[in-house]
């Protein structure tokens, strides 16, 4: 295998949150790699500066300012190999085994896996359709403290969340950073979908609203360019970012993803990144519409809130339909999803839901997947 997964023949896979290969463009990366190597010569192939190469930091600083209204200052930004590695580094540098990490229910299931590796104690926090409930987060943090534990992190995907597709509203953003400041929590703001809101600009980041030290934000080009590039970044206060830059990992190996950072910088400064992102956004808009329209037409007994962007639609199945129990029959019928309980951090919440990725398949395949879901839920329906 070259890639992480390959869909089984005949199955429209809505389980993996991967981009459609049609949205990936090897040609632009080849040209940018050639140009980066010509521009920076052997420096592109040496050990890199700990925070990332200066041209990359300069590009990212302007880029993040345009996206968010607050530019990172010197020392507040570091390049990493994707948001997953950023999470892993945050956990290993800032956490200790047994620390509590608060996770709203539902939360991105593979971040939960990273937290379990450390191992942290997972503390589920209630959320409603708009996202995490600040009072519930505060109560959970205080409960951990009352039990003698340390509430170390609160993990959030506050723009086009995985799995719900919803962005946290501004009033909740303000409330949640105050909770972090009062309780000593560090918010891990997983912001990988910030550039993929499809109906309007995203709200300001928690990092831009929070006091220094209360938020560490993760970004990535995995969703906006290509996940194989493995390039991401962290923004945080200078002390935290400095600690990461001085870690043994970077001391030994130099800056992370040095060459790819320069390649992406070339793509960005030449304007190709923005052009390509427009193509990806148009592709996701068409895919979101195909899946949503298909579900409305063919599976009217299901319900969902239209995702604000990103990759995922969080589908509520009709009462009595169990998304986990239905999965074998769904796969046999040629469609797959991830059952909601995988995002529930050990609770029952979300058990009636399935996460459907609209990122991986072409619009016509997504329409067909919706038809198969409808037929599965109501056997005998014509499916026309
Ligand atoms: C919320 C969230 N965080 C992180 C990742 C992985 O990011 P990266 O590819 O930058 O490691 C994903 C990918 O699905 C995601 O949905």
Describe what you observe in this structure:
This protein is α/β, with parallel strands linked by helices. The chain has 2 domains: 118 residues, Aspartate Aminotransferase, domain 1; 244 residues, Aspartate Aminotransferase, domain 2 (3-Layer(aba) Sandwich). Helices cover 41% and strands 15% of the residues. It is built from 13 helices and 13 strands. Strands 2-9-8-7-6-3-4-5 form an 8-stranded mixed beta sheet, with helices on both faces. A 3-stranded antiparallel beta sheet has the order 10-13-12, with no helix packed on it. Helix 6 links the parallel strand 6 and strand 7. Helix 1 packs across helix 10 and helix 2 packs across helix 10. The longest helix is centred in the last third of the chain and has 27 residues. The protein is globular. The two termini are 37 Å apart. The model has no long low-confidence stretch (mean pLDDT 96). The site of pyridoxal-5'-phosphate has 13 residues, from helix 3.
Condensed summary:
The protein is an alpha/beta fold and 384 residues long.
What's the arrangement of secondary structure elements?
Blueprint: E1 12-13, H1 26-40, H2 54-68, E2 77-80, H3 83-94, E3 100-105, H4 109-117, E4 121-128, E5 131-132, H5 134-146, E6 151-156, H6 170-183, E7 186-190, H7 206-209, E8 215-220, E9 232-235, H8 238-245, H9 248-253, H10 258-269, H11 272-298, E10 312-316, H12 327-332, E11 335-336, E12 338-339, E13 353-357, H13 363-377
Parallel strand pairs: 1-11, 3-4, 3-6, 6-7, 7-8
Antiparallel strand pairs: 2-9, 4-5, 8-9, 10-13, 12-13
Helix pairs in contact: 1-10, 2-10, 5-6, 11-13
The chain binds pyridoxal-5'-phosphate.
Pyridoxal-5'-phosphate is lined by residues 17, 82-84, 108, 157, 162, 190, 192, 220, 222, 227, 232.
